[in-house]
Write a structure and sequence with these properties.
Number of domains: 1
Structural class: mainly alpha
Shape: globular
Strand content: under 5%
Number of strands: 0
Largest sheet: none
Length: about 100
């Protein structure tokens, strides 16, 4: 029998990690702009990693829209690094702002 918990991860070479936190509670606590971006993200971002990038960028003086653009660039770089996750011919354009 297939383990349904791992059935929705897709084909990727990016390392998977286990989390001890409740991902839904962590997601609900994210800023609204970040949650909106995560809803359209191509990759399954964890609330912890996305919030870490969000906070770090804000402390350097970036606006929320600049942080969203930065997240889009990071995601594009990750997609380029792992071509098995999404075909390059059918990959949607990741919005950066």
């Amino acid at each position: 029998m297939t383990n349904l918990r791992n059935a929705n991860l897709g084909a990727t070479n990016i390392q998977k990690t286990r989390r001890n936190l409740d991902p839904m509670r962590s997601y609900d606590a994210l800023p609204v702009e970040l949650r909106r971006w995560l809803m359209d993200a191509c990759l399954p971002w964890s609330p912890t990693s996305s919030l870490r990038i969000w906070r770090k960028a804000l402390t350097t003086g970036a606006s929320p829209s600049e942080v969203i653009a930065k997240l889009g660039k990071i995601e594009n770089a990750m997609l380029a690094r792992d071509p098995t996750s999404i075909s390059t011919t059918s990959r949607p354009t990741v919005r950066t702002g």
